[in-house]
Amino acid sequence: MTSMAAESVSTILVSCKQTRFHIESPNYRELDIEGLNITVTSGGEGGKSKGKGKSKVSEGTEILNNAKLRLKAGSRYALMGKNGSGKSTLLRAIAEKLIPGIPEKTRVSILQQTNASDSNSDHVLLDASSAAGDGPAVLEDVVDKATAKSELEQDINSLADGVNSPDPFGALRALRKLRHEQMQKRLFVLDKDARLRSGARGLQARKALAEFEKTVAESVALTEQQEDGITPETLETETQEAVDLLAELHLQVEPSRLADIESRAKKILAGLGFTEAYLNRPAHSLSGGWRMRSALATALLQETDILILDEPTNFLDLLGIIWLQRHLESLPDTVPSPPTLILVSHDRDFATSCCTDLLLLKDKDLTYFHGDLATYEAAQSERRQYLTKMKDAQDKQKAHIQQTIQQNMAQGRKADDQNKIRQAKSRQKKLDDRWGLQTSAKGTRFKLNRDMAGFHATARSEIDIPAEERGVNIALPSPGELRFPGALLTLENVSFRYPPPKGTKNPSAPTITDINLSIGMGDRIGILGLNGAGKSTLIRLLVESSRPSTGTLTKHPRLKLGYYSQHAVEGLQTLARAHDPATTGTPDLTALGLLMKEVEGELDEGEVRGMLGSLGLPGRLASDVPILKLSGGQLVRCELARILWKRPHCLVLDEVTTHLDYETVTALREALRDWEGAVVLVSHDRWFMRGAVEGSRDDEGSEGDESEGEEEEGGLRRRIVYRLRAGKLAVLQGGVQEFEDGMEKRVKKLLGD
Questions:
Q1: Residue 469, pLDDT score
Q2: Of residues 752 and 451, more confidently modeled
Q3: In principle, which of 44, 289, 616, 696 could form an S-S bond with 315, CB 3.0–4.6 Å?
Q4: What are residue 27's phi and psi, to 5 degrees?
C-alpha cells in the first residue's frame, strides 16, 4: 500500500502493510500499522527510482523503514527525536492521512508552526504562521473554525431560501444542489481510497468509485432536470425531505448548544492569556504569537479523534503553559471520548506532565515506552548495565567451554577416541547454535519454540548491548581575557518608556521602572515574567538595541556580548532569502558559507566546521544543505555558532530552547551551568532554567547547587533568579519554584478549583 503527497519543494512517499481489520473495523482514535515506510524526496515528481518493478526504491531522505505505528485510543504520546529526524514529516503524514490504514472518517487536528500544504486534505490544519485575512472577532472566529458554523449556516440559508421560496420547485432544487455538493466531497474520498489500495481491495475500491461516479452523473442530471419532467409525487416527497433536513441542521446550530461551545471557548482563550479586550478584537489584527494561541484554542475546542500539537508552548508564558498542562491532563475526566494526543515539545517539564507514553523516532524506527523521559533514560541505562554484565559472564563461560572442547578434541585425536571427538563436536555445535540470550524479551526463561519461531541460522540471538547514547556535546569556547576586573554590565535606576503614538502628546506609561542590575563574570541571571511584563524591553537595553529613557547603562570596555534573539530563526531565514540564487546569481547560502563570510579569516574552514559539528551541523549538512532547508532546531544551532565563534564574555539568551530537541536542550543546559562567562537567560522552560541558572543537576526540581552566591574556582559566582512584573525587577528567593508555585495558584483560580 502506498500513497504520496507533493509540495512545491518536496514529496512525501508512504507505504505500509494493511490488514482487513483496518478497513472493516476501524477505531478512529487508535492506529495499528505495520511495515511503515516514509521517504521525503526533493521536487514534486516523486524523485528518481532505482531497480525494476516492485523493487523500486525512491531516492530521497528516508524517515521510517519498516516501522510500526501504534497509537492506543485516548493515550497521550510525547514524540521525541533529534532535529531533522522527520518528526514534522511523520505528523503531516498522519494529519493528511497519507498512511494507508487511517480511516477517512478519523478526525485529525494538527497545530503546527511551519507552513504546510492543505490543498486537498480534510483534516483540520491550524497553521499559526499563516497570514490572517479580514474576519470576525477572535472569539467568534475560534468558535466558527471549531464547529464549521459558517458552512452549516451556509447550508441552512441555501435550504431556507428554497423552502421559503414562492416557487414550488425551490425546496426541491435547493435539496438536490446540497446533496450534489455532498456527493462531490464523497467522490474525492472514494477516489483517494481507490488510489491508495491495491490487490483485491484495490479492485473493489475502484469498482465502488466507478459506481459512485455514475451516481454523481445522475445527480448532475437531477439538478438540471426540467420542471415538466418532475412528477407531483417526487415534488412532494423531496420538498418534505428538504424541510426535515433544514430542521436537523437548525438543531446543530441551536443557540443553547452554541452558547455552551462559546462558554468553553472563553475559558480556553482565558487560560491561554486572552483578556476580554482581546476577545473582541478582529482576528486578522492579531500578531503572530496571538494567532498561534488562537489556533491552539481552536484545536482544543473542536471535537477530534487524534490531536497533534507541534510545539504548542511557543509564545506561551509560564501561566499559559501550566494552564495547558492542566487542561490536557484533565481530558480523560472531562471528555467522554478524549482524543489520542501526539505532542512535540522542547519543554521537558511540560511533556513529562502531559504525556503517558513516549514515542521515539530514532534510526528510522519508532520505539514506544510507557512512562516519562527520565524513567526511560534510567531504564535504558539499567538494561545496558544488565546486558553488559550478562555478556561478560557468558564470554568467560564460553571461553572456558571452548578451551575444554579443544582439550577434549586434542585428547580424542591423540588416543584415536572417536566417541570423545564426536562428543567434542556435538558440544561445539551446541555452543555455536544455542549460545546467546538466556531470557526472553519479557524476562522469562528463553524457549526456542515460543521466543524464536521460524527458521534462523542460529537458535538464539547474540546478546546485543544497545550502544550508549552519544548525546550532543556542546563545548562553549572560553571567553577572551578582560585584562582588568569589573562588572560586565550595570544598570542604575534605568527606566524606559516608548514614545507616544503619532498624533498624541500624552507620554506612554513606562515599560520598565527603576531597574538596578549588575552582571559580573561567571554570574547566572535568570529573568522570569509573564508576556507583556517588559522582558524583551529589558533585554534590548542590555544589548544596547534601545537606550534608557532615564538612568545609566555601563559596560566593561572590553566586553564581547553574545545575543540570541527569540526571533533569530526568522532572521536567519530572511537573510537566506536575500541570497536567493534566482535573483543574486550566487549559490544557495549554507551554514558553512555564512560562517566563513562572517569570521573574515579569523578562523579557518576546519575550525568553523569543527564548531558547527560540535553544535550538531556536521559535514555535508553544514556545507551542502541550504539554510532555507534546515529545520528550526538546525537554524538555532547555526545562530549559536554565529554567536560563539567570537568568544563572548556574556551570553544574553532570549528563549533559546525554542525549536531545539530535548538532547540539545540537555547539552546546552549542561554547558551553560559551569561555563566561565556570564549568562543572562530569559526562558519559560522551568527545567532548563533550573539547570542553567540555579545549577540543578537532577530532574527533581530546584534542589541542588543553586544559591544567590556560591564559591567557585577563581571567586564568587552568583546564581540569581529575578521576576519582572509591571516593569519592576525583584529577586525570587525561592527561585524558579517560587514563580511556578505562584502560577499554579493562578491556574487553579482560572480552572475554578
A1: 55
A2: 752
A3: 289
A4: -115, 110
pLDDT, position 471: 58
User: 63 by DSSP, 3-state: which?
Assistant: strand
Give the gyration radius of the chain's Cα atoms: 32
Strands 710-712 and 678-682, by their bridges, are unpaired
HSE (side-chain half, CA atoms, 13 Å) at 634: 21
DSSP of 95-109:
HTT-STTS-TT--EE
Residue 686 corresponds to which cell in the numbers above? 522551568
Q: Work out whether strand 561-564 and strand 650-654 pair parallel, antiparallel, or are unpaired.
A: parallel
Looking at per-residue pLDDT, the higher value among 645 and 196 belongs to: 645
Residue 688 and residue 381: Cα distance in Å, rounded? Answer: 22
Share of the chain above pLDDT 70, in %: 79
3-class SS at 50?
Answer: strand
Pull the grid cell for residue 403: 578451551
Ramachandran quadrant class, 737 (left: phi over 0; alpha: psi -120 to 50; beta: rest) = alpha
Distances (CA, A) of 151 to 148, 219, 253, 499: 5, 21, 11, 45
Torsional sign, CA 279, 282, 285, 286: positive
Look at residue 190 and give its three-state secondary structure.
Answer: helix
CB 39 within 8 A of CB 62: yes
Average pLDDT over residues 532-561: 91
Q: Which amino acid is at 564?
A: Y
Q: Can you say how many angstroms the Cα of residue 337 is from the centroid of all Cα atoms in its chain?
A: 24
Place of cell 532615564: 550
Please, what is the end-to-end C-alpha distance for the chain in angstroms? 49
* CA-to-CA separations, 425 to 434, 436, 623, in angstroms, rounded: 14, 19, 56
* Separation between Cα atoms, residue 592 and residue 634, nearest integer Å: 13
pLDDT tier at 377, thresholds 50, 70, 90: confident
Q: 420 phi and psi, to 5 degrees?
A: -70, -35
Burial 215-233 (b: 16+ CB within 10 A, else e): eeeebeebeeeeeeebeee
Whats the size of the chain, residue-wise?
753
- Return the biggest CA–CA distance within the chain: 116
Phi first, then psi, for residue 708 (nearest 5°) are -70, -25
Comparing CA positions, the residue from 700, 704, 705 lying closest to residue 687 is: 700
CB atoms within 10 A of CB 152: 15
Three-state DSSP at 565 gives coil
Measured between alpha carbons, how far is residue 128 from residues 33, 301, 310, 628 in Å?
A: 30, 16, 11, 19
**Between residues 301 and 54, the one the model is more confident about:** 301
Cell numbers for 479, please give them.
571567553
Of these ranges, 49-53, 225-229, 246-250, 384-388, the one predicted with the greatest mean pLDDT is: 225-229
